[in-house]
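Anyone up for a design puzzle?
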């Protein structure tokens, strides 16, 4: 287990962090190379210590295993000086700063990854050397770190067991590589011979089968041509059938609804024929009665009396004539109403055969059909107008005759 993974060392470093932060909290925002800091010895040292410590503790907190793996040289060389604790900090800040920067320099040397690289730069190390290297009773290493630590790290790496194992591995890989190349060369020759043999056999098989395949392709082509001809003929027949189906679709569209309207139409046409016969007969009676009376008067004038008794003879004929005129009017209006109904029925029959094609047309042109169907429903299923309110009832005619008789009696 590495030095910085040991529980005691971890505990001491965390305690030391609390002390450093407490003592040097006023220097957190200071810049190392500012003129104010450079002029004050105390401010410069405290700022340098705090900056180096914050850089170390950041790696210690966030990537401890990474820090431990890349500071093995200092852990082996000066293990007692890099187990940072409160006593080391309190005893000598300059020595503490020297050991701290040595650890950070090694981390940066191996990985190139350091939070705040300025703390191990040659400029800063030279500045520290000029200030603290020649002080009495101080064993600082700022010059050694700048000039010799990199060489020491490389020498340590070259002498390490891991490097020896790496060299052995490279040598072993080289030997395996030569052996592998030799095996590959042998296999290549064998495989090339086998490939040539198989290629010759494949070419022979292809030549043997080429004629057979060519004949088979020709036969299949003839079969496909015949099939395409049949398909083309079938397409023509299908198009003709499609046209017939469209005609039948238009003819039998809404066949149930059309059948109902046709029955109503036949019934109304029969009624119209009967009514036309009736009102024609009534018209004949209305017309022939005055003609007969006129002819009798001209041929035999003695038949009609010359006094007021003629009124009693004329009154029945007049009454019958008025009744015939009334019923003639009723028949005529009823015939007119039926003709109106037949026109409406013919309109509905036409719509039944037309609406389906019209809806399809609007769908193809992306036009909304909801309103069309709504109007179609309202028209098809609306009641057929008969104009019955305009036809006078039988009792209305009786009342008119009674009123006329009452006026004649009073006179």
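Challenge accepted. My sequence:
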């Amino acid at each position: 287990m590495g030095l910085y993974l040991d529980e005691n060392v971890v505990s001491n470093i965390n305690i030391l962090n609390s002390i450093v932060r407490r003592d040097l909290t006023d220097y957190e925002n200071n810049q190392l190379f500012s003129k104010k800091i450079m002029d004050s010895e105390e401010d410069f040292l405290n700022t340098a210590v705090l900056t180096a410590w914050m850089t170390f503790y950041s790696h210690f907190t966030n990537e401890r295993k990474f820090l431990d793996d890349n500071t093995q040289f200092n852990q082996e060389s000066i293990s007692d000086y890099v187990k940072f604790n409160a006593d080391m900090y309190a005893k000598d800040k300059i020595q503490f700063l020297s050991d701290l920067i040595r650890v950070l320099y090694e981390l940066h040397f191996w990985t190139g990854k350091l939070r705040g690289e300025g703390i191990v730069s040659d400029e800063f190390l030279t500045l520290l050397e000029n200030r603290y290297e020649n002080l009495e009773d101080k064993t600082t290493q700022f010059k050694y770190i700048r000039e010799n630590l990199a060489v020491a790290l490389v020498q340590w790496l070259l002498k390490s067991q891991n490097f020896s194992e790496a060299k052995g591995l490279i040598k072993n890989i080289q030997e395996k590589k030569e052996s592998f190349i030799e095996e590959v060369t042998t296999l290549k020759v064998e495989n090339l011979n086998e490939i040539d043999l198989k290629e010759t056999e494949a070419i022979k098989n292809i030549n043997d089968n080429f004629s057979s395949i060519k004949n088979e392709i020709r036969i299949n082509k003839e079969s496909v041509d015949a099939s395409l001809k049949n398909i083309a003929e079938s397409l023509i027949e299908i198009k003709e059938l499609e046209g017939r189906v469209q005609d039948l679709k238009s003819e039998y569209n809404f066949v149930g609804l059309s059948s109902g309207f046709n029955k109503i139409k036949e019934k109304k046409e029969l009624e119209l024929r009967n009514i036309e016969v009736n009102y024609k007969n009534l018209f004949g009676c209305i017309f022939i009665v005055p003609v007969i009376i006129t002819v009798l008067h001209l041929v035999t004038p003695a038949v009609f009396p010359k006094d007021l008794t003629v009124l009693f003879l004329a009154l029945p004929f007049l009454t019958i004539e008025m009744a015939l005129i009334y019923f003639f009017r009723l028949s005529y209006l009823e015939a007119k109403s039926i003709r109106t109904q037949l026109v409406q029925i013919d309109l509905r029959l036409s719509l039944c055969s037309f609406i389906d094609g019209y809806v399809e047309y609007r769908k193809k042109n992306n036009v909304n059909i909801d309103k069309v169907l709504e109007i179609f429903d309202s028209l098809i299923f609306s009641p057929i107008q008969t104009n019955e309110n305009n036809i006078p009832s039988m009792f209305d005619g009786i009342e008119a005759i009674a009123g006329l008789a009452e006026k004649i009696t009073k006179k």
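A detail worth pointing out: Residues 3-159 form one domain.
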